Amino acid sequence: MQLAKRTGYASSTLQEALGGRRLPTLPVAMAIIEACDADPVLWHRYWAYARRSLDPDVPTALGRAATPPWPA
């Protein structure tokens, strides 16, 4: 798998991260983002937003919507 070579992570780690069952760790997400030549600042912000939205202790008044960093 080319992505494994570009990120330095095992294919199994990447499959789990990209499987959509849970949010990948920030280091794995950032490695994928950088391997895909995406904007790390936008994606880091989006990852943090997703992480906050999954936290049951975050007040719902803070909102749960985030604009994805990919083109519409």
Question: What is the secondary structure topology, with strand pairs?
Answer:
Elements: H1 2-7, H2 11-18, H3 26-35, H4 40-54
Helix pairs in contact: 3-4
| Main sheet properties | none
Distance between the amino and carboxyl termini: 28 Å
Low-confidence stretches: none
Number of strands: 0
Mean pLDDT: 88
Q: Can you give the helix content as a percent range?
A: 40-55%
Instruction: Estimate the global geometry from the Cα principal axes.
Output: globular
The radius of gyration is: 13 Å
- Supply the helix-strand structural class: mainly alpha
Keywords:
4 helices, 54% helix, 72 residues
What would your notes on this structure say?
54% of the residues lie in helices and 0% in strands. With 72 residues, it is mostly helical. Helix 3 packs antiparallel against helix 4. The mean pLDDT is 88.
In short:
This protein is mainly alpha-helical. It is 54% helix and 0% strand. It has helices at residues 2-7, 11-18, 26-35, 40-54.
